[in-house]
Amino acid sequence: MIKCVILDDELLAISYLKLLCEQIDNVEVVRAFNDPKIFLNEIENIDCNLCILDIEMPGMTGLQVAELISGSKKIIFTTAYKEYAAEAFDLNVVDYVRKPIKKERLIQAFEKAADLLSSTQKKEFIEWNTNIGKSTIFTEQIAYIKTSEIDSRDKDIILKDGTMIVLKNLNFKSLLEMLPSKDFAQVNKKEIIALSSVKVLSTNEIITTISTDSDQFLKLHIGETYRNSLMEMFGK
Q1: What residues bear 4-aspartylphosphate in this entry (predicted)?
Q2: CA separation (Å) from 11 to 18, 34, 170?
Q3: In this structure, are residues 169 and 176 in contact, taking their beta carbons and an 8 Å threshold?
Q4: What is the pLDDT of residue 132?
């Protein structure tokens, strides 16, 4: 299922695009915005995997918006102007659809998006800006993830060999979308564990295989909100 959010400064364009989307299988319009700033304030809290962005908007272009969200969402651009095509594809977006939008052309764009989303879910690595620059991190090497104590917008990844890498400005919701869902679970508001790092599981606590400075094994408190989903993952 493609869950998309629309951003276009013209209300008629939004209505028309929503109408087209409703006629296409496996596509759901979750939200629509006509103001880029409101869109940016809310997008990270919306359950979606694709954004359809108009390029020509007052105050902030769709290209500028895309630069801020391209790490966490797939993007389709719409525009009446062909001169933006080269710049749009430099951002590694899914597609560039010219207005007036035709249903058949939009279906092609959604098919591309579906293929990319499917391959992303199978990826064995994540790519993000870190404390050592843009990095590729292989998920099988990740043992544990926690919210940074220095800046809560950042996330500390602990690898199985003890190496720590800081993911810059990334929330847990977006991070979990990048990780293989069968291999990772959120334990509480501030911690994610690789299932391969779990040694003992009780209703309130996880004992991990991760050593601490005091030669003990790291223990994690299970938040009430996450308990049921964790137990289901382990067949409890």
Answers
A1: 54
A2: 11, 7, 31
A3: no
A4: 94
In 3-state terms, what secondary structure has residue 192? strand
Q: Which helix (H) or strand (E) holds 78?
A: strand 74-79
Q: Which two tokens stand for residue 91?
A: 């951002």
**Residue carrying the six token digits 């869902």:** 181
Residue 171, pLDDT score = 92
- Total count of residues recorded for the chain: 236
Give the lowest-confidence range in 155-159, 183-187, 214-218.
Answer: 214-218
- Specify the fold of 2-122: Rossmann fold (3.40.50)
Reported as type and span, the H/E element at residue 64 is helix 62-69
Pairwise CA distance, residues 149 & 165, whole Å: 13
d(CA 146, CA 139): 15
Q: How far apart are CA 232 and CA 105, in angstroms?
A: 41
Sequence-ordered list of residues with C-beta below 8 angstroms from that of 33, at least 6 positions apart, any chain: 5, 6, 7, 39, 42
- Within the chain, all domains assigned CATH 2.40.50.1020 are found at 125-233
| Predicted TM-score of the model (pTM) | 0.54
